[in-house]
Every structure is written in structure tokens, then in C-alpha cells.
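Aim 2 progress update. The chain analyzed this quarter is reproduced below.
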Amino acid sequence: MAEQTERSISLKGTLKAIGPGILYAGAAIGASHLVFSTRAGADYSFRLIWVIILINLFKYPFFEYAYRYTAATGKSLLDGYQKLGRWAILTFFIFSFFTAIVNFAAVTKVTADLASYIFGLELSNFVSSTALLGLILIIIFVGRYATIDKIMKLMIVVLAVFTIIAFFSALQRGQQIQEGFVPPEIWNGAGITFLLVIMGWMPTPIDAAVWPSLWIEERVKQTHYTPSPKEFKVDFHLGYIGSAFIALFFLGLGALIMYGSGDTFSASGIRFSEQLISLYSTSIGKWSHGIIATIVLITMFSTALTVIDGYPRSLKGAMVLIFPSLEKSGEELFAFWTVFLAFTAVIILVFFTKNMKSLLEFATIISFLTAPFFAFINYRVVTAGWFPESQRPGTAMRMLSWTGLLFLLGFSLVYVYVIWMK
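Predicted C-alpha cells:
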């Protein structure tokens, strides 16, 4: 891919561009939406809508900059990190290494528990996680990007349609709040921790902004077409804005069906899966239970698929830039990181955790605390002197970027304060 020049947008070009944004949406509409958005509604009703809106707004520039950079230069965002200096690419690699380990285990746990519940299996963490990861590795190594692209486009559309139907069905039913119910406090230790949990993976960790720029390279190879910057933005907005709206519908489902009902989400993965699927079938009808179970499972499977493809791809890309002599070993590096992270995930699930809720909260808080760094370097890449001036963000985007940085940093400091005062 060569450096891009501004071209007009066309329907044919836009259709060829669509793909990486859908994969991004697939990565986002997973634990952050199915688990945390729904929990936000179930625990706090509609009082946390502002959190979902603000975090999607404040993270928006830092994901958009990945597309902006690739559209302007024809290279992945990792190339921009390298141009900032060795410190940037090295720090990205180190932070991503640790977040990848935890997030691999987290998405594997949620997906494996869902599968165990739906198929009525009583399997150990080792068996369920190994079977799931084995299937995903086969798809990644045999089917490659083209297969992932097709799976995601189908599943995201199906999930979005059923989620919207379920929400409006629940809206007609209305909330069923028990007499004497006392709304939980938000501004205490537990409430603030939960806010950070939502913001950590909503819409998805900022280090994942690198993934679409890497998937764009694969999409161009697949279609033999290099989209214009405007066509890239259509793909980005389709995935980003679409996933933000779906998060609000998930929150609404939790608020309408579970808030004040006396029932709370379980920390057990199997029990949580049962409750999650019941959210849909309760609002749509018992007849839909099997259909909904299948859709929810495939949605989490798709999320696991994108996460398990995205992290090894970005770690491989960073290593090649740090050590240029490894460039010819790119495929082997990708295979190494995929297998290594899968193996590590199994070890964590077997020996270190049996509680899905605790694992997910730990993963999301780690993602949130590293978010200010990833946000800052994404901003620096597209405002650096060597970046094409015509493609640099305007005043409004710069102001939103700094507001987002202050928001992310401020909440990180609040969390550190709350933990310190415990």
C-alpha cells in the first residue's frame, strides 16, 4: 500500500472497504456489551447511560486515528509508533503483551462457559478452554482473514437485529421493580470500580485500535483494492457507531428485565450464561430460547476469534519493527504468539481462576489503566510533523482528544485513590 491521495467516495469502493470495521465491532460486541453493558442496566437501570455515551465519545478519536493513519500512509498504526521513537513501539509491545495474556483468558472463559451451558456439558476449565481455542486456531490458520471476515459480517447483523427486537419487546413489558427495592450507590468503592470496568472494555481496549489498521492490510490483499480515506471512514463509522448503539440496547435489556427484580448476575460463568440468555427469551418469548442461545454463543465466539487474531497480529507486527531481521519470519511469529497466548490462557483458567466476574474485572481495569498511554501515542502519531498535514486532525478533534485524555487519566487517578484509601 502506497501513501494515499484524497479521492472521491464510491459505492463500489465503499463496499470493498467494509470489513475491518465489522471485525472491530465483533471484537467490541463481546464481553463489554454482553456482560458489562447488561450488568450496568441490571444493577443501575438507565443511570449509567452517560458512561457508555461518554466513553464511546472520548475514545472515538483514538480509534479513528488508526484508520486516519493507514488511510493517509498505507501502513499500519504500528509504523507510526516506530516513527515516534523506539520507546513508543517498545512500550506498546510490553503493555500489549500483558493485556493480551489477561484478555485472551477472559474472552476464552466467557465463551467456553456459554458453550458449556448451551450444550449442557459439565467440563473442566482445561477441557472447555482447550477445545474452544483449538477450534479457533484451526479457523485462523486454515481459513485466515477471509473466513473471519465472512463470519463476522453475518453474525453482527443477526445479533443486532435480535438485540433490537428483544429491547423493544422488553420496553412494552416495562420494568418489574419489587416493592422496597433500594437502588445501589454508584459513588462508592464498588460503584467506581464498576465504572472503570465498563470503561476499560467499552467499546474495547484502546490498544486494540491497532487491529483494524492491520486488518485493513489483509482486506486490501483480499480485494486488490485500496480504498480512499473517505471510504475507510465509512467502514470505521459503521463498526464504531454501530457497536456503541448496540451497547445502549444491552444496557436497556438489563434495566428493563433485571433491575429491581431481586435477581442479580452471578459470578459463575455457567449461571451467568443462563441469566443472559433468559434476558432475551423473557422479552421475546420462550420459543426463542434456542435461537437466542445460538446467536449469543456465536457472538462471543466471534469476539474470541477477533481477539485471538488481533493480539498475535499486533505483537508480531511490533516485534518485526523492533527487530527488522525478523521480517522474513512474520508468519512464524504470528503462529508463535497465537499458540503461546492460547497456552497461557489455558494455564490461567485452570490454575488461577474459577470466577468469571473477577477475571473480567481484572482484565478490564488493566485495560483502563493503560488506556491513557495508548490514547496519547495514537494522538501523537497523527499530529507529528512527518504526518501529512492535510490528514491531521482539525481543532475539534484535537480538543476532543485532549478532553478524552483528561477523562481517562482522571478516572485512573480516582481508581488509584479509591484503592489506596481502602
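The chain has one domain: 11-421. Residues 11-421 form a domain with the Amino acid/polyamine transporter I fold (CATH 1.20.1740.10). These observations will guide the mutagenesis experiments scheduled for the next reporting period.
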